[in-house]
Amino acid sequence: MQYLVAVDGSESSIEALEHAIGVASLLDAGLTLVYSVEPRILVEEGGTAPSFSEASERLYTEDISEAEARGERVLEDAVERAREASVEADSELLYGDPVDTISEYADEEEVDGVFVGHRGLSKRAQGFVGSVATGLVERANVPVTVVR
């Protein structure tokens, strides 16, 4: 059996990873850890989502190389956690919208299930960009375990 774990470095994704490690240990399964690189466009702290006219002053974008470097660090840490628990793990850096890339990768690799954290971003940012967990539950063709 092979399970996919979506990680983003948030506390929620670490909890999902730890849960997946426990399940994989019991079932003698392997894990594929994925991080989807999508340069962020986020609202600055301390306010609500801006109007269109305010957007240039209140939003920032992230450079692709910074997003890739962060993804690699998150994946390295996740693989190390799995291997410390004697669970076979590999990783993959994906590119694009996390819901699309993770669900497509799960289909292509024919994984047996997906683990994802309940919330990676702040509530405010989540409302602005949407929920990966919700999107995966709606889109994935395999069981999705959402870990709180």
Strand order of the largest sheet: 5-2-1-6-7
**How helical, in percent, are the residues?**
40-55%
Q: Residue-averaged pLDDT, rounded? A: 85
The percent range for strand residues is 15-25%
| Sequence stretches where pLDDT stays below 50 over 5 or more residues | 124-130
Distance linking N and C termini? 23 Å
Order of helices and strands: EHEEHEHEHEHHE
Shape: globular
Largest sheet: 5 strands, parallel
How many strands appear in the DSSP assignment? 7
Q: What is the C-alpha radius of gyration, as a whole number of Å? A: 16 Å
How many DSSP H or I helices?
6
Instruction: Determine the structural class based on helices, strands and strand pairing.
Output: alpha/beta
Primary descriptors:
single chain; 148 residues; alpha/beta; 5-stranded parallel β-sheet; two-stranded antiparallel sheet; 6 helices; globular; Universal_stress_UspA; UspA; Rossmann-like_a/b/a_fold; Universal stress protein
Question: How would you sum up this structure in a few lines?
Answer:
The chain is α/β, with parallel strands linked by helices.
Question: What features would you describe in this structure?
Answer:
It contains six helices and seven strands. Helices cover 47% and strands 24% of the residues. It is α/β, with parallel strands linked by helices. The chain starts with a strand and ends with a strand. Residues 124-130 have low confidence and may be disordered. The longest helix is centred in the middle third of the chain and has 21 residues, at 64-84.
